[in-house]
Specification:
Helix content is 13%, strand content 20%. With 405 residues, the chain is an alpha/beta fold. A hairpin with a 5-residue loop joins strand 14 and strand 15. The longest helix has 20 residues. It binds zinc ion. The site of zinc ion has 7 residues, from strand 2 and helix 3.
Length: 405
């Protein structure tokens, strides 16, 4: 199966996201979850407005360990240093640097201190819904269907006091309580190389590019349609990497502005005045008759990619999925609304909308689109006043823009 899917497990959302191969959709987007308003407001918050999946940023809170068990037949992780210890250090450096790319973004509350010290485990199948975030290089999984190079399985709480394994109970809806990253260990045609080993192994995939992408899922990202972004759902071609390598002055260099803006939205630092810009509006069809009759109440275009471009340079600064809004106590309204927040101030922007009918399809952003509503069909006993049905993404519109003032 080449598309993402989700499973409903008791009161937990499990979200699955992959890096696909093949060559070359939508802007940054987040895995969303509707709090379980059947539970007391003290646990759910009382609102059925979707919340973005996220990690807690309390210092030391986000644990991460990686399994040192590596496949040797065939060797799937290729390092320059072939000694046993050197190989592990080289792989560990990739994980450390990939985390540093995300924590290196200015203007967020996701500080390096949010992560506990990176740990190793010798357990081969360390990945599982145990409340411990793990990276696995030699664990088979049914999700490894043809084309899937790596994926992350994310478990998000839809209320407080959900417990996985021996870990601390969740404290709020949207909190990611387990995130595991799997790399394909069992395809003789698929190998991953560290940055040091990639030049000599041009048929390998860049381990660092894929690691940064999967750690983006660990932080709550869904996919983006911005092709230069790390959260684009397709891996860079073998022997190549996305963006630039991180460097001391630019630890977040591999990320695109779309990734950075998404991170600032997800982990907003309200003291950051440099990225306090926000653009919002509604996408509506020329004729309301072109809106779907079902579900009822749809008053705008849903599932469009809205892109903010730096008017002076032409660079894509951020893009997001538009089409809905929500005010407590919910549910979401499908009114065509979009907001692109945390943009650099002092910049002029051009904004346009495009349908998700290109190389990135709605199936690749399922957690960001499908999880905006719950109702008595999905969840027995759901209160009707807070129920909704997600419409089909509108893929058929053509874009006309009106000149700004
Ligand atoms: Zn992905």
């Amino acid at each position: 199966m080449r598309r993402g899917y989700k499973r409903w497990l008791a009161q937990i959302f499990v979200i699955f996201c992959c890096v696909w191969l093949a060559s070359t959709v939508q802007g940054y987007s987040f895995d969303m979850v509707v709090p379980d308003v059947r539970e007391p407001a003290s646990l759910s918050g009382g609102s059925a407005c979707p919340v973005a999946a996220h990690q807690l940023t309390t210092p030391g809170y986000i644990d991460l360990r990686w399994s040192t068990m590596l496949d040797t037949d065939p060797v799937t992780i290729i390092t320059q240093d072939q000694t046993a210890g050197g190989q592990l250090n080289e792989i560990e450096a990739v994980i450390t640097q990939s985390l540093a790319a995300w924590t290196g973004v200015s203007g967020t509350v996701l500080a390096p201190a949010a992560f506990a010290a990176l740990a190793r485990t010798s357990t081969q199948n360390a990945c599982g819904a145990d409340g411990i975030n793990s990276v696995c290089f030699d664990q088979m999984d049914l999700a490894f269907t043809p084309g899937v190079l790596a994926f992350a399985r994310i478990v998000t709480a839809d209320r407080a006091e959900i417990v996985l394994g021996n870990e601390t109970a969740s404290s709020e809806p949207g909190q990611i309580i387990d995130a595991d990253v799997y790399f394909d260990p069992d395809d003789a045609n698929v190998t991953f190389a560290t940055p040091q080993a990639l030049p000599a192994n041009p048929k390998s995939y860049d381990l660092e590019s894929l690691m940064i992408h999967e750690l983006g899922h660990l932080l709550g990202f869904s996919h983006t349609a911005v092709w230069s972004a790390m959260m684009f759902p397709y891996a860079p071609a073998p022997g190549t990497y996305t963006g630039q390598r991180p460097s001391a002055p630019r630890p977040d260099a591999p990320l695109s502005d779309d990734d950075r803006t998404g991170l600032r939205v997800l982990y907003t630092d309200l003291t950051d005045t440099a990225h306090a810009g926000s653009i919002s509006g509604r996408i509506v069809p020329a004729s309301p008759l072109s809106l779907p009759a079902n579900p009822p109440g749809v008053t705008g275009v849903f599932g469009a990619q809205v892109v903010a471009v730096n008017a002076a340079t032409g660079a894509v600064m951020a893009a997001t999925l538009g089409g809905w809004s929500c005010a407590a106590p919910g549910p979401a309204l499908f009114d065509g609304s979009y907001t692109i927040a945390r943009l650099p101030v002092g910049v002029s922007y051009t904004v346009y909308a495009e349908p998700l009918n290109g190389v990135v399809a709605p199936s690749q952003v399922i957690p960001a689109l499908d999880d905006l509503c719950r109702n008595s069909t999905t969840d027995p006993g759901w209160p009707p006043s807070q129920a909704c049905i997600v419409p089909q993404p509108n893929l058929g519109f053509t874009v006309r823009t009106l000149p700004g003032p």
